[in-house]
Amino acid sequence: GGKEVVGPDNDVEMGDLVPSITILSSLPEANMVNYEMAQELVEELQKLGVDIKAEPTDFAVLLDRLYGEEGDYDAYTIGWSGRVERLDPDMFIHSINHSDNADPGGNNTNRYRNSAFDALADAQRQEMDINKRREYVFQAQQILAEDVPNITLYSRANVQVYDKERFDNVVNIPGEGLFNEWTPMWINPLTEDKILRVASNINLDTLNPLAAKSVYEWRNLRLIYDKLVRLSPEIEPIPWAATGWDVVNDTTIDIHLRDDMKFHDGVQVTAEDVKYTYELFIDRKVEYFASFLAPIDSIEITDENTVRFGLKYPYAPFITNTLTQIPILPKHIWENIDDPNEYANEKPIGSGPFIFENFRRGEELVVKTNKEYFEEIKIDGYIFNIFASPEGVLTALELHNIDMVSYDLVPAHIDLIKNNDGGKYNHLEMTEAQDIGFFYIGFNLDREPFNNKDFRIALSYLVDYDLALDVHLNGYGSRGGGGLVINAANEYWYNPAVPIYDTYDPERAKEILEEAGFTWDSNGKLRMPKE
Amino acid sequence: MLLLEVKNLDIDYKTQEGTLKAISDVSFTLRQGESVGFVGESGCGKTTLAKSIMKLLPKNGSISKGEIIFKGEDLVKKSKEEIRRIRHLKIAMVSQSAMNSLNPVYTVGDQIIEGILAHTNMSKKEAAKRAEEVFSIIGLEGKRLKSYPHQMSGGMKQRAIIAMALSLNPDLIIADEPTTALDVVVQDRILREILSIQKQMNSSMIFITHDISVVSEICDTIIVMYGGKIMEKASTKIFFKKPLHPYSLGLKNAFPSILDIGEELISIPGTPPNLMKNLSGCRFVERCPFRTTLCQSEMPVLREAGEDHLVACHYIDKHEAFTEAAELRETWEAVRSRIIQEKEEGA
Amino acid sequence: MSKTVVSTSIKSFFTSKKNSQGFFPVFINNLKRDKLALIGVILLIFFIGVGIFADFIAPYEPRERHYNEEGKIRRLEAPSKDHWFGTTDVGRDIFSQVVLGTKTALTVGILAALLVTLVGATVGIIAGYSGGVVDAVLMRIVDFFYAIPFIPFVIILSAVLKPSIWNIILAVSLLSWRTVARLVRSQVLSIAKRPFIKAAKVAGASHSRIMVKYILPNVIPLILLEMAFMVNFAIMAEASIAFLGFGDPQKPSWGQILHINFVTGNSRSAWWWTATPGLAIVLLLLSIFFITRALEEVVDPRLRRR
Amino acid sequence: MDTMPLIQIENLKKYYLVNNGIKDIFSKEKKYVKAIDDISLIIKKGEILGLAGESGSGKTTTGEILVRLQEPSDGNIIFDGHVFKANSKIEEKKFRKEVQMIFQDPYETLNPRFNIFDTIAEPLKIHGVKNRQDIYDRVIKALEIAELKPAEHYITRYPHELSGGQRQRVAIARGIVLEPKFLVADEPVSMLDVSIRADILNLLKNLRKKMGLTMLYVSHDLSTIKYLCDRIAIMYLGKIVEIGNVKDVIDNPQHPYTKVLLSSVPVADPDYKRQSIIIEDEVPDQIHLPEGCRFGPRCPYSTEDCKNFDHTLFERRTDQWSACIYNEEELRK
Amino acid sequence: MLGFIMKRIFTMVIMILLVSTMIFFLFRTMPGDPTAFIVDPSIPKEARDQLLERYGLNDSLWKQYTIFLKDLVRLDFGNSFFYGRPVTVIIKDLIPATLILMFTAMLFAYIIGILGGAWMAWKRGTKLESFGITISLIFRSAPSFWVGLMMILIFAVRLKWFPGQGMRTSGYTGETFREIFLTLDFLKHLILPSIVAGLYFVATPLLIMRNSMLEVLSEDYIEMAHAKGLKESKILYRHAARNALLPVITAGALFIGSAMGGLVLIEYVFSWPGLGREIQRAVVRHDYPLAQGAFIIIASLVMFMNLVADVLYVILDPRISYK
Ligand SMILES: Nc1ncnc2c1ncn2[C@@H]1O[C@H](COP(=O)(O)OP(=O)(O)OP(=O)(O)O)[C@@H](O)[C@H]1O
Ligand SMILES: Nc1ncnc2c1ncn2[C@@H]1O[C@H](COP(=O)(O)OP(=O)(O)OP(=O)(O)O)[C@@H](O)[C@H]1O
Ligand SMILES: [Mg+2]
Ligand SMILES: [Mg+2]
Ligand code: NI
């Protein structure tokens, strides 16, 4: 027998070693900045004597780990994209931070559990009064900033370009950029050629609204199919295919349809179509919308032009999220289809502002303007050009083959266009919109040391937010911070009064740790506070 | 009339290690209708000599000296194109590896016709007829012309090659070991055919072999080569009765014959000289039982030793004594110990 | 089937009288005459040197970002005194990355080649020597691997396994031993027919003795030659896989450098970033090809210049 | 002198299965090359038996089966009183020690990577001789018997440093180093130049004298057989067609094939007028053998009866057996 | 001959089954949630499970395998997770692009390779030969993707001679095969990638041709042809080149097979919408059915080309017969 000598005597007195940590980071090709920032954090923590490494992980594998039953992970990098429906705070407040969602499979992969916060998250969800709801959301943000369940690294800016010599009056929306649902409707052609040519570097695969999965498919589908409500450029819900709505009570909403709408095949749009569509989406378990449709309890046609939605519980985002997203499908076509989920829908018929003309997978989608639409549209149609890589788009821009890009330019191309070498980009106007999405480092709060709030706060001093923004994003984006989930770009819901930890100061981090009782042993390894 | 006259021919091969003198100072003549057999150990230069006449030496081989006068014209000086016209038409070859001398992807007939067309204005049809003719001469059916080489036996291929060589009635046929790879029964038949055709056409022939019994059966004249030189030339009859050169004597001793009755075979100890070295004396000196210092320093020239008989030995006059001694085993055993001894000294 | 020119003609190496000299003397001798081979050897030694001392040679940490006097990041600078091969989009030194990439390339090349030739030669010798059922089974396995398209398979394999150079080595080896096995087998077949093997059998030598003492030494030149090809093959495979994004992102390799260059959209503007790692690959592979040419002459004397 | 047989072959067969074409996989019928088809032979102790015949007649196969490089398809081999049946495992080591073989090609029989000492020591090592001095002595002795003297000069050399004749001697030294009882020599001189050939033949002859070796000498060259052997067996397409004392067979061939063969051998005497018997030079297809006598289709004497002949050997003269239904007299007609 | 082909086809089918089985199980061991790229991570877990259910990914491995095999026999590779369309249809769309690129590149490589190889054999030992070999080795040493990048840099970006990516200028519409592929625009796009692929391939036919030519030139029948007094050119073409081509052509068929896989890189660099690029993407997206289907198709092509090689060999070389 005998005493085991671990190190100098006082080590024994200390707390446990900080367990070794693996950060599941993005692969560089998937997200270079996440990858780099994870590497940086690893280096910082190593300097502080923490045994940590980054493991660049395939996205699918990462999701498997995060959402799997085992919940086997310490920390990870991931991001939420800023889709327009996420301007509603429910997603970022409730879905990813409420303790209801903290079990395996839920979106609260930080395993953040705070009952005070939960109460606020629930309240905002059910509060149909927008100002009160905003108050709840503000308070929730305060709590998150204090607790730092995650550390937001940065948000990207949507930097895009369009040809200012050929078009003006474009609309730029946070989270969406130029190719939003308003630009094609409002854009003003300056030349005789009134076809708008939009470049994408992402493939469209299906035009079946029940099968569509990518944002880009939706961006086109919502122009072919109409929706009851659209979100204005200021992100206010405005009745669209409807003349308006009545909130009868917290769980009953009446929608009044327009009576001057026709599908592209000439058939009148009726309440039957609306009811059919919503039921079809619910019935067919369309994954993309499942969470928005979940609160719907019943759909009734109360009179020729009115549809009444009954909700299972009060659901504040119903109008901003649910009604703004579901496209109206022609019942007379879809009711004859055996398996709507698998239907190819090669010639989509909708009632929207644009009429489908032609689609070649991997190459282009061509639509023409619906001349009978209730709003006047100045262009004759648009072509959605699919490019295999951003390189091709750049060449096409140079050659004046493209009028607008629909995705965020990569930093290298932003620089090229800015430098405007030889004036070859003179015709382009660059636009920038802040994204309301964000990228963050998340922690498993069920595990040491991330269950320690001070440790998380210290971590937020170890992230170089300026590096992410200035070096890796080349300045195109916005800074992150500890616990930040509602982005300043989301002006209405963002609480500017909350102080967040968003400075890079490793010394301060050290101090915080010391204050919190963390110690360093004789090997320079960080140890947890003694219980 | 002299058909071919080779004068003081030297042939070198350039190799990595240096220059190899494959043929040195070889001269001989060949009359119209005469057949001469070249014999000698492997590597003594038989093939090289044959190829040089057709100017088919490999790239690294070259005639460094001498003349090859064919029908009064020196082939050495001729241009490529002139040589091309002579090949096959005037001088035809049956090469050492007849087995592989047919292109596997064409029919035998095609290959014969091709040769005919290259030198005459015959139409394809006429050429085909001619091919059939020569096929029948060597005893093959005409339909065999349509066969691919792999569909024929070794003997048949060999005959096809001979037929090819005969197709234009050449003045000179050079046959380089045409039967070495064949069975005795087949060999016998082919030899007979060659012989009868050659006599019939009155062409001259250079026949190369290492089997002196074959020469004795089909050639008028025999030339014994050793180390790139001619050691002895004689009419076959004379040579087999009375070989003069010590090397020839040794060869005869070493050659088992089916007619012999229990005579002991005696081999020639040692190995042929390294042609890479600069050899000054007699090429056979290392293995010769009768050598003198003269032999070591001076290469004997080919000298008349009787009617139709040339020998390259300093001591033609002593040949009777040599012949006697050569039949004794001890004579050669002495050489063996001498060689071992020399090696030891050298080492 | 795929008869590499080498294999068909190798037989003559041993049969020819003049060329039964040792393998290395002939090779060294070749070097003296073949300037390209000499260049190859010199280049290879250079690369191996760079590989071994990479950590000392590389002037900077590969991830270190460089700033100018004004504290601005040295983004995408063309080659200069400070940065011989220029900088990346986040101000990293490309020269250091390329130097460190040498280590990866050589590790992958050499280890994969060793593994491949070990497996391939063993299978080839056993199949060729045993004949019969063993041979048939082994050759069917070889055929099976021949039916698998290389790059797609390695992509899938590196996706199934974690991205790391070890897995790339594994993937390359898994698919490449087939070539070696087949070549070695065909040579063993011809060696096994040769009388000296028969003589050994008559003398009572066991199968293992024959394989190890008689056959192996005679296929070693071929194995060495194949190994050299395999080194190249593996380096190229690693670079390709890394370029496609299935490599180990934390291990600097040439393919990885090019991959980052490509995915960040800089391949068309920053020529120094695109050109240098590629040139390194070309030079390294070229040096080995030059050497294999000399090796090939040893293995196949008919290719020799007289 | 009637000595004991050392080797006795009974009804030996060797059929090679030929997979001649893909169609065969659909047909049940299997095709064989009958390389050896039911031959019986006796080789007496101390005797040299010559085996002659056309290329492809099965000479090498017979030799290789005798040293068990190949397994016979059928038949027995009785070696020194032990019966080895086809497909039976034998006491390898002992057998290997007593039976050796020398091959045709002097350039191919030696491992280019072994020096002469290693080459000759190899069989000793295989057979468990461990004492180094012992090995050395026996290697030197074997070399000296093979008349490579002084042996010390050769042991450090490599095969490519030797001439063809020397290599063949090394091969012989390796063959005799285990002091075998029986030696198969498969055309050991056919690749050698005439001037050295005699040496090897004499050496083989002497081996019998010095070591009492029994030998099977395989060759297509009747002259060397005549020089070296006591008895001769003539093979034709896997069958023995004639067997007897060398002198008898050569002077008085009984089988038509032997006659043809002998008449074809060129003679180094311009005065000798040889009468060749000329026959068809195409050998029948080895897979589709002719009915009855295999030589029938080429035989100048063949009759209808030959088609039913089963290759029995008849003793036509004392100790001279021929597989032809006709005797000398009948043939003459 | 027919029997031979039948047997080869039979073994090929077995091989395809084996390869498919291997790839099937390989994919099932692949870590990661295949739904990750199909749907947004924010969707509820139940929805994701439904998706797995719909794709049959929750069944036992054995059941999945039997279904897979059954479908395979009917040449049905299932539906792509990502595209939601039948894999067969997707592959059918992609294959022409790959094949056209492939054959153009091969043609380029073979013409240069064969002529160059024959010429180098003829010029054996000269400086020109060393030069030729060195050049071909340089292209063999250069990764095709890198050469592609450099070519784009030089010819597309700097000189603007050719487009640097894609198969067509955007905005061009065409429906039929002819409208899509037989246009000047398409040709312009084809040039760079096929040259790059061709340059990478060229060393193989070049070196085989050279060696084979050297081998043939040392054959006895070449000497015989000289002895027959044939003209040099006739010897070169009729005897030497004809025979030397045998291994080149058969190696070519084999090579097409293996080059198929190598095109992945070129398609990736040039954004060529072909099978190779798609397989890379499908793997990244964990789209098993598509990756599986594409892989099996490529593997089958490889095997088919092996078969063609064997048959060609028999046809071209009268020595080998399967009668
Ligand atoms: N291409 C060559 N390069 C170098 N040396 C050669 C070449 N061809 C032949 N030799 C050498 O020239 C000498 C004569 O060769 P040649 O082939 O003429 O002999 P040979 O008498 O025909 O022999 P064999 O009986 O073996 O056919 C030999 O020493 C041989 O090694
Ligand atoms: N492994 C084998 N497979 C198939 N057939 C074989 C095999 N070995 C030999 N044969 C055939 O068996 C027959 C006899 O061959 P063998 O080598 O014994 O003849 P040989 O008399 O020694 O001929 P040669 O005089 O040419 O050496 C030949 O037809 C040969 O083709
Ligand atoms: Mg010769
Ligand atoms: Mg034999
Ligand atoms: Ni093959």
UniProtKB/TrEMBL annotation, chain B:
It is a peripheral membrane protein. It comes from the Bacteria. SUPFAM superfamilies: P-loop containing nucleoside triphosphate hydrolases. Residues 6-252 form the ABC transporter domain. One of its GO terms (biological process) is peptide transport. GO terms for cellular component: plasma membrane. Signal peptide: none annotated. Belongs to the ABC transporter superfamily. NCBIfam families: oligo_HPY (TIGR01727). This is Peptide/nickel transport system ATP-binding protein. It comes from Alkaliphilus peptidifermentans DSM 18978.
Automatic annotation (TrEMBL), chain C:
It comes from the Bacteria. It is a multi-pass membrane protein. Residues 102-292 form the ABC transmembrane type-1 domain. The chain crosses the membrane at residues 36-58, 105-129, 141-159, 165-184, 219-246, 270-295. Keywords: Cell membrane, Membrane, Transmembrane, Transmembrane helix, Transport. Gene3D superfamilies: MetI-like. Its main location: membrane. InterPro entries: BP-dependent_transpt_permease (IPR050366), MetI-like (IPR000515), MetI-like_sf (IPR035906), OppC_N (IPR025966). CDD domains: TM_PBP2. GO terms for cellular component: plasma membrane. One of its GO terms (biological process) is transmembrane transport. It is found in: Cell membrane. The keyword Membrane applies. Belongs to the binding-protein-dependent transport system permease family. This is Peptide/nickel transport system permease protein. It comes from Alkaliphilus peptidifermentans DSM 18978.
Automatic annotation (TrEMBL), chain D:
CDD domains: ABC_NikE_OppD_transporters (cd03257). It holds the Pfam family ABC_tran. One of its GO terms (biological process) is transmembrane transport. This is Peptide/nickel transport system ATP-binding protein. NCBIfam families: oligo_HPY. It comes from the Bacteria. One of its GO terms (molecular function) is ATP binding. Keywords: ATP-binding, Nucleotide-binding, Transport. It comes from Alkaliphilus peptidifermentans DSM 18978. InterPro entries: AAA+_ATPase, ABC_transp_ATP-bind, ABC_transporter-like_ATP-bd, ABC_transporter-like_CS, Oligopep_ABC_C, P-loop_NTPase. Residues 7-262 form the ABC transporter domain. Belongs to the ABC transporter superfamily.
UniProtKB/TrEMBL annotation, chain E:
The chain crosses the membrane at residues 9-27, 94-119, 131-157, 190-208, 244-270, 290-316. Its main location: membrane. Keywords: Cell membrane, Membrane, Transmembrane, Transmembrane helix, Transport. Residues 95-309 form the ABC transmembrane type-1 domain. It is found in: Cell membrane. The keyword Hydrolase does not apply. GO terms for biological process: transmembrane transport. One of its GO terms (cellular component) is plasma membrane. PROSITE patterns: ABC_TM1. It is a multi-pass membrane protein. Coiled coil: none annotated. The keyword Iron does not apply. It comes from the Bacteria. Belongs to the binding-protein-dependent transport system permease family. This is Peptide/nickel transport system permease protein.
